[in-house]
Amino acid sequence: MTTEELTRIGTAEELEITTLSGNDTLGSPRTIWVVPHGDDLYVRSVNGPTSAWYRGTRARHESHIQAGGVDRDVTFVDAAPDINDELDAVYRDKYRRHSPHTLDRITSPAARSTTIELIPR
């Protein structure tokens, strides 16, 4: 992914993610939040590991995303847990205009347990 694409995706307010089903078809797109950290992009499930889109990432570890005018196929890699505190700060800063309740949900233990890095394919 180019630096420009990373910036465009990382600064986008929302990301559309479409996971692959078992028969290699794309499911329905879901809108989620994305944050940049260094040269990497991360997403979380605000509803924790029970969210349908997140469960799809566990089954196939690949997806298609759209954000900031960029369309990319990606692979998912579980983020190292030691990065969660830093990502919490990035989420709180980027999405500070949202309610404290919403920010608490995206930085909750359940959401943190779903933190994944997006790797371009």
Q: What's the tally of helices?
A: 5
- CATH structural fold name: Pnp Oxidase, Chain A
Overall CATH architecture: Roll
Strand content: 25-35%
Count of DSSP strands: 7
Describe this structure in words.
The protein has 121 residues and is of the alpha+beta class. It has one domain (3-120): Electron Transport, Fmn-binding Protein, Chain A (Pnp Oxidase, Chain A), CATH 2.30.110. It is 33% helix and 30% strand. The protein contains 5 helices and 7 strands, in the order H-E-E-E-E-H-E-E-H-H-H-E. It has helices at 3-11, 52-60, 84-94, 100-106, 109-112; strands at residues 15-19, 30-32, 34-37, 40-43, 62-67, 70-78, 116-120. Strands 2-1-5-6-7-4-3 form a 7-stranded antiparallel beta sheet, with helices on both faces. A hairpin with a 2-residue loop joins strand 3 (34-37) and strand 4 (40-43). The radius of gyration is 13 Å and the shape is globular. The protein starts with a helix and ends with a strand. The model has no long low-confidence stretch (mean pLDDT 93).
Looking at this protein, list some descriptive labels.
about 120 residues; alpha+beta; Pnp Oxidase, Chain A; seven-stranded antiparallel beta sheet; 5 helices; 7 strands; about 35% helix; globular
